[in-house]
């Protein structure tokens, strides 16, 4: 350690900048995309302390990556400045780049070079003296657990290992400030935990300052400090615990014996004073707008025997509260938009067209649309479609006893000698929401492609809605809807054109097509933007349109492949309330996700790793498996990591 | 910019970059394919497949009344290496064969050929040529005239006379005395190949780094843009010179193109041109950030002009004036001139030096533009 410190000692903190590693002052940055100017960052100011981990937290398009690139001297701000370790990132970028470590989103590795060759390259580029290398490599290899793989090509490493190699490359000359852009995207929870351990060891042992970006709100809680960004603006900043504590007394866990959780969630979400209601395994987690005591029986009279208990707040609660507060602020400033009476569902957006909302001229339309969306549906109607006639629990139970809609038995898929999916079996009943949870490469997407009839299985049987996919793929396909990860929209077509195209792809024509298009525009509140180019929509709206397209032919089964990655928590909630409504109407939903919290919304789920199902059951029962004395309230992630570890040990034992 | 603050030395950074590039060249077959397989493929294709000489032209002979005289005349065609003859009984049949594309020309000997031959005003023969391909048409008509001329000479010889022609042409063909089109096609082709290797290679490998996100990581190291450019130029210069050695070797030993100038002049001019081509590729990569776009631009902006506007196949002097002006910014034009001179004529400094100067100017312009356009920035 001594040798390394001699060679690459970070500049002494106090001497340069009063204990501040990075200062962002009134930073603005916009990009010209086609003819539209996108404001990526809007007058953002904050500072990052020395020797701590600061998280830049926000959904996609919040401006996180732009800020990282500005800090690394890769972009020049429109106005304002970033000072990194006392140097201006724009004018002294080469000097800044000589002192920081930076890991871009895809880790910046040369996949056709070996682990060792990647390290050598970055050691040369970062000017690590030859004499110090052996010792530094030993440390890094040990830290990242890459020693056995030094001669392996980087392209052949797993996602988690690539991420650790990328980190090692960024650390090859010990930097004073480490910038990590979305370091944990696409890696399994176990690798995520290991990364966090490494980062904290760096901070503790070497006093490195770390700034990282993440879209995972549960990850934000692991930072010392967080900076919350939303649509290019700073929402708030501070220690996560402090932000979280502002929500203490607002959060409850609510159950009603004998009442379907989706019905309950729907009821509560529409009650006054409720800010957020989420299905969490077998109960509903409720966040109130104030911390005053709540009488749930009065709040929700239909639910007989309602039970509520106060629970600890989470970081996400404060994030959602902040976004809602901000959009409410916007609403007040543009006075005529506020309507106290709840308009009928599916009407508000159509009536109050974006242009009429007292919006200053010159603001891009899509941005306006996004603002409006937040205000409209988040404020007044946290849940969009009400359940038509809530089914009593008994009836739903009866439904589920009918023949399963999806039957998978010993399903296999081989690519060469590699089993992407190995002997999995499960069934899904009508109206059930079934989740496949796993890291990248676990076999989720392969399973999905087989279920949709896009990929023939190598072995096993597969029945969809009673039809064997091997013989009647076309017939089965007419009864399923599929929404892929990238949304599969034609981005240069308008919203209406996309809907029209997908209806014709499913053989809808004439009056029927018109009827379905009207339905989609109304139901998904897309009428006001029917003529907008779909590529210009916000991510949440694209997701909504993609769902509408998948539903044009009224499928019985809906497949959702990572449907909410990248969208903000509000759009995700809105999306899931639609899915819940569909399930209530009897549509069977299968969803893949790597968001642990999203798994909580499912009725049942299967956790996959390396092509196998490790466990299957309700979210509650899966979490219960991980319950130990040390961990009385395990999260889904705890359960997942526990299962993976147990699986690996089994592999070692065998 | 104060570079003293940067840790390490420029030498160390360049060494790292260049070593990385060579490792990638060895591991990724696509660069090797562009540098070595493509020259082989193009040279074989053009060396064997494309020839501007016409040989084995299918020729229809219509002899309305065969006799000793007509046989004597047609023998001249039968023996020529330029023609493959077939005989038709009537003009109509021969015309049908021409319509069907089976023959490219028809020679008709009338019924009265033998009789009129001995008259003072001589016999008439009719030649019908397929003129769709004007170039081939002209060549055929020339060949037929040649065959006819040599028959006249033979006939005179047989009669013990010397053919009396008032003016005689003494023809000497310089530089390419066998008039093999391959001899000038192959050197020109070397220029096209070097354009492709140079521009395509650098444009593709730079855009590959953008595509894979590695460029972003490179830019956030203490590298300067000068080092990035040199780190790309040097490895692909070496690879390109390797491709050149291969192409020149094939030209000399497989296609037996004569090399009348010195090998050193050839390599020096090629090195200069390669730098120009590599800079064009780098310039393209400052605009194109995906391999697909970079490849397309490289093909349209460098390969096609090198092919069409360099004088490699099509003579620049016979192009419209506007196009002639445009050819001055096509680097391959100067290189083709140097190559054809060095291969077929020798070290003619009067040709080589001005063209080399033009190449140097273009290289400086392209490198300068790259320098100006390439920032250590993402936009």
TrEMBL record, chain A:
Limits of the ABC transporter domain: 22-256, 406-635
Polar residues composition-biased segments: 333-343
Gene3D superfamilies recorded: P-loop containing nucleotide triphosphate hydrolases
Keyword match Protein transport: no
Range of residues in the leader sequence: none
Keyword Disulfide bond: no
Molecular-function annotations in GO: ATP binding; ATP hydrolysis activity
Region (Disordered): 330-359, 375-400
Keywords tagged on the record: ATP-binding, Nucleotide-binding
Pfam families linked to this entry: ABC_tran
Protein's name according to its UniProt entry: Putative ABC transporter ATP-binding protein YbhF
Biological source species: mine drainage metagenome
Lineage, broadest ranks: unclassified sequences, metagenomes, ecological metagenomes
Gene: ybhF_12
UniProtKB/TrEMBL annotation, chain B:
Recorded topology in the membrane: Multi-pass membrane protein
Compartments, record wording: Cell membrane
InterPro entries membership: ABC-2_transporter_component, ABC2_TM, ABC2_TM_bact-type
UniProt-listed Gene3D superfamilies: abc type-2 transporter like domain
UniProt entry tagged with the keyword Membrane: yes
GO cellular component, one term: plasma membrane
TM stretches of this protein: 32-51, 184-206, 233-255, 261-285, 292-314, 334-367
Coiled-coil residue spans: none
GO molecular function: ABC-type transporter activity
Family as reported in the entry's similarity comment: Belongs to the ABC-2 integral membrane protein family.
Protein name per the record: Inner membrane transport permease YbhS
Organism: mine drainage metagenome
Lineage: unclassified sequences, metagenomes, ecological metagenomes
Gene giving rise to this polypeptide: ybhS_5
């Amino acid at each position: 350690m001594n040798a390394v410190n001699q060679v690459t000692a970070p500049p002494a903190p106090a001497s340069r900048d009063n204990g501040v590693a990075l200062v962002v002052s009134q930073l603005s940055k916009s990009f010209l995309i086609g003819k539209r100017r996108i404001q990526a960052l809007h007058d953002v100011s904050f500072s990052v302390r020395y020797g701590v981990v600061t998280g830049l937290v926000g959904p996609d398009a919040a401006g996180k990556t732009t800020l990282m690139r500005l800090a690394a001297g890769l972009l020049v701000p429109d106005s304002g400045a970033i000072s990194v370790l006392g140097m201006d990132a724009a004018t002294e970028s080469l000097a800044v780049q000589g002192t920081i470590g930076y890991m871009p989103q895809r880790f910046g590795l040369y996949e056709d070079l070996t682990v060792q060759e990647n390290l050598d390259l970055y050691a040369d580029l970062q000017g690590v003296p030859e004499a110090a290398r052996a010792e530094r490599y030993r440390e890094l290899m040990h830290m990242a657990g890459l020693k056995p793989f030094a001669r392996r090509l980087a392209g052949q490493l797993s996602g988690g290992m690539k991420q650790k190699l990328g980190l090692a490359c960024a650390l090859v000359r010990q930097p004073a400030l480490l910038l990590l852009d979305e370091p944990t995207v696409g890696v399994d929870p176990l690798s995520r935990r290991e990364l966090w351990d490494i980062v904290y060891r760096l901070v503790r042992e070497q006093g490195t300052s770390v700034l990282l970006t993440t879209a995972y709100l549960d990850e934000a809680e692991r930072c010392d400090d967080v900076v919350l960004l939303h649509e290019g603006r700073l929402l708030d900043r501070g220690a996560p615990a402090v932000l979280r504590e502002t929500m203490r007394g607002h959060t409850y866990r609510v159950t009603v014996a004998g009442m379907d959780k989706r019905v309950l969630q729907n009821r509560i979400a529409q009650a006054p004073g409720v800010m957020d209601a989420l299905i969490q395994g077998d109960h509903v987690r409720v966040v109130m707008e104030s911390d005053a005591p709540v009488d749930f029986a009065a709040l929700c009279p239909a639910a007989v025997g309602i039970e509520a208990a106060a629970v600890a707040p989470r970081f996400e609660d404060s994030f959602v509260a902040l976004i809602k507060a901000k959009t409410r602020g916007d609403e007040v400033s543009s006075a005529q938009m506020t309507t106290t009476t709840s308009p009928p569902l599916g009407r508000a957006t159509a009536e109050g067209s974006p242009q009429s909302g007292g919006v200053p001229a010159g603001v891009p339309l899509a941005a306006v649309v996004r603002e409006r969306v937040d205000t409209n549906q988040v404020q007044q109607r946290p849940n969009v479609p009400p359940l038509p006639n809530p089914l009593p629990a008994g009836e739903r139970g009866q439904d589920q006893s009918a023949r399963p809609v999806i039957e998978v038995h010993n399903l296999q898929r081989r690519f060469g000698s590699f089993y992407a999916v190995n002997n999995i079996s499960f069934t899904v009943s009508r109206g059930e929401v079934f989740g496949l949870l796993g890291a990248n490469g676990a076999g989720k997407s392969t399973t999905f492609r087989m279920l949709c009839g896009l990929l023939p299985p190598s072995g096993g049987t597969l029945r969809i809605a009673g039809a064997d996919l091997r013989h009647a793929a076309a017939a089965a396909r007419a009864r399923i809807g599929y929404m892929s990860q990238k949304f599969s929209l034609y981005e240069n077509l308008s919203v209406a054109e996309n809907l029209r195209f997908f209806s014709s792809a499913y053989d809808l024509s004439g009056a029927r097509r018109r009827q379905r298009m009207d339905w989609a525009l109304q139901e998904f509140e897309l009428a006001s933007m029917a003529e907008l180019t779909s590529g210009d929509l916000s991510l949440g709206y694209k997701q909504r349109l993609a769902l509408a397209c998948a539903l044009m032919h009224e499928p019985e089964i809906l497949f959702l492949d990572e449907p909410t990655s990248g969208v903000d928590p509000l759009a995700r909630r809105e999306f899931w309330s639609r899915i819940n409504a569909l399930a209530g109407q009897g549509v069977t939903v299968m969803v893949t996700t790597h968001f642990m919290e999203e798994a909580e919304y499912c009725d049942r789920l299967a956790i996959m790793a390396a092509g196998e199902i490790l466990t299957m059951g309700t979210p509650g029962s899966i979490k219960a498996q991980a319950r130990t004395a040390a961990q009385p309230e395990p999260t889904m992630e705890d359960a997942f990591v526990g299962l993976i570890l147990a699986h690996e040990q089994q592999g070692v034992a065998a | 910019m104060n570079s003293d603050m940067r840790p390490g030395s420029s030498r160390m950074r360049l060494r790292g970059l260049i070593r990385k590039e060579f490792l990638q060249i060895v591991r990724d077959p696509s660069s090797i394919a562009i540098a070595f397989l493509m020259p082989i493929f193009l040279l074989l294709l053009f060396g064997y497949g494309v020839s501007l000489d016409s040989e084995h032209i299918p020729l229809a002979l219509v002899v309305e009344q065969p006799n000793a005289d007509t046989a004597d005349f047609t023998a001249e065609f039968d023996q020529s290496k330029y023609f493959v003859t077939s005989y038709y009984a009537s003009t109509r049949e021969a015309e049908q064969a021409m319509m069907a594309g089976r023959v490219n020309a028809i020679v008709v000997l009338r019924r009265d050929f033998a009789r009129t031959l001995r008259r003072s005003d001589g016999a008439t023969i009719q030649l019908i040529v397929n003129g769709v391909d004007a170039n081939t048409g002209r060549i055929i008509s020339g060949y037929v005239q040649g065959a006819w001329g040599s028959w006249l000479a033979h006939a005179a010889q047989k009669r013990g006379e010397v053919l009396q022609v008032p003016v005689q042409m003494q023809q000497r063909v310089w530089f390419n005395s066998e008039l093999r089109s391959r001899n000038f096609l192959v050197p020109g082709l070397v220029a096209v190949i070097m354009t492709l290797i140079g521009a395509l290679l650098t444009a593709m490998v730079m855009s590959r780094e953008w595509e894979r996100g590695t460029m972003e990581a490179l830019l956030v190291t203490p590298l300067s843009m000068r080092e990035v450019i040199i780190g790309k130029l040097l490895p692909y210069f070496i690879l390109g010179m390797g491709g050149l050695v291969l192409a020149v070797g094939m030209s000399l030993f497989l296609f037996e193109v004569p090399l009348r100038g010195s090998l050193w002049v050839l390599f020096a001019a090629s090195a200069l041109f390669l730098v120009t081509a590599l800079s064009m590729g780098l310039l393209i990569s400052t605009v194109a950030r995906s391999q697909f776009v970079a490849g397309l631009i490289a093909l349209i902006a460098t390969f096609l002009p090198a092919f069409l506007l360099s004088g490699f196949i099509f003579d620049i002097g016979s192009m419209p004036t506007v196009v002639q002006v445009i050819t001055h910014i096509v680097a391959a034009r100067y290189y083709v001139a140097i190559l054809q001179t060095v291969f077929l004529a020798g070290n003619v400094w009067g040709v080589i030096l001005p063209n080399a100067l033009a190449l140097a100017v273009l290289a400086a312009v392209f490198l300068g533009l790259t320098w100006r356009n390439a920032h250590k920035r993402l936009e």
